[in-house]
Design goal:
2 helices; mainly alpha
Length: about 55
């Protein structure tokens, strides 16, 4: 789907509807970075791990 096609809700809604940790596995670094940025803008806790991060 193109950017802005509603994929974010597939990752964020389940996490917002339950308590505890939600783990999302995605092969797309750009999608992960976008998700974390959007959640931080909503003042929600989020983090990511991917192979492009320094140790």
């Amino acid at each position: 789907m193109p950017t802005g096609g509603g994929k974010s809700i597939c990752f964020q809604l389940p996490a917002l509807l339950q308590t505890g940790l939600t783990l999302v596995v995605s092969p797309l670094v750009a999608v992960m970075e976008n998700q974390v940025q959007e959640l931080h803008q909503l003042q929600l806790s989020a983090g990511l791990l991917h192979s492009e991060l320094s140790t």
